[in-house]
Amino acid sequence: MEVQNVLHMTPGEGKTSYAMNSEYQKRAIIKAKPIVEEAITDLYCKTVPRSMAIADLGCSSGPNTLLVISEIVEAISLMCQKLGHRSPELQVYLNDLPGNDFNTIFKSIPFFVEKHRTDKENEFGPCFMSGIPGSFYERLFPAETLDFVHSSNSLHYLSQVPHGIENNKGNIYIAATSPPNVPIAYFTQFQMDFTLFLSLRSAELVPGGRMVITILGRRNIDPSSKEHCDSWELLAQSLRDMVYQGLVDEAKLDSFNLPLYSPCLEEVKAVIEEQGSFHLNLLEAFDAEGDTNYDYEKEVEFDDFIKAVSRTVRAVTESMLVSHFGEEILEELFDKYAKYVGQYIGKEKNKYVNLIMSMTKKG
Ligand SMILES: C[S@@+](CC[C@H](N)C(=O)[O-])C[C@H]1O[C@@H](n2cnc3c(N)ncnc32)[C@H](O)[C@@H]1O
Hints:
The protein has a single domain (3-361), classed as Vaccinia Virus protein VP39 (Rossmann fold, 3-Layer(aba) Sandwich). It has 10 helices and 7 strands. The chain is globular and about 65 Å long. The protein is α/β, with parallel strands linked by helices. Strands 3-2-1-4-5-7-6 form a 7-stranded mixed sheet, sandwiched between helices. S-adenosylmethionine binds next to helix 2 and strand 2. Pfam families: Methyltransf_7 (PF03492). Keywords: Magnesium, Metal-binding.
């Protein structure tokens, strides 16, 4: 799978789109807000800049894209208000892979800018926004031009499916039944990708520039721990059922693996220290609140709830599944997936762990 050409979240604003099924990722953005505010405040107070260049990497499309930018803009406005300053000019870059639905974002930008201008007057400076299609595993910006880099729920995507895992048959990620070379290959790919990412961003950030990143991760050092693998295991189980029913070719399933890796805190810390360009101010794990656990007190029908969980996973995996298996399997696959989610809830507490890190580029 050529990740760069294939991967995109489900576009548009329809029922199965990422825009309509990204509540879980939104909670992670909200949870990370105080850490983003701290980084912005520190950056502003140290430099009192006349202009600031900000990039959100892996921005996707939908309400979360501009929610992140709102958080950043509001943190700057608040500082300016406190200090009695005029807001700096803001250059905001929204990056994602070329297949991303940039058009939907662009349509919402005039409303976003107008709203902030009306709400904040002097504390909202000119704001220039642009889309940057390309992989964050390549250079995206000229040297030393960025002040702040943000990325949420995106850096657990690898640049490619790790090599040498053809023996991971019947699985689509690291599973309890994966041969021992599989977790090693995934971790090696993560190490290479994350090291490259840090080197590229270090070239693009000004000295003292800040970076806040949230990714799907784990607390447990065992990469096949239940913490984060269950979603992928339920998807693999649904695909195995379809093989059993003759709806999916077994060889097709055997040759499919997801280009993702959810690292633990120790793995992230080791790569940052080894790469050496950044001072790590903070690294911690958190559970995104109100995750995919069914709340029996809520007035949401159980059936609607499991379908919503299924659509959340569909919105982030659909492009990869369609490219490998074809579009015709989708409805049946995610009906099965919803049923497995239904059986799983109640038996297990489904945990999604996020890692958040805040860094400063060394001077
Ligand atoms: C789950 S979405 C998260 C979107 C948004 N940041 C949020 O929090 O809702 C992950 C995004 O990362 C993007 N992505 C994955 N790999 C990428 C890469 N190498 N370069 C740029 N974007 C990438 C995907 O296309 C997708 O839009």
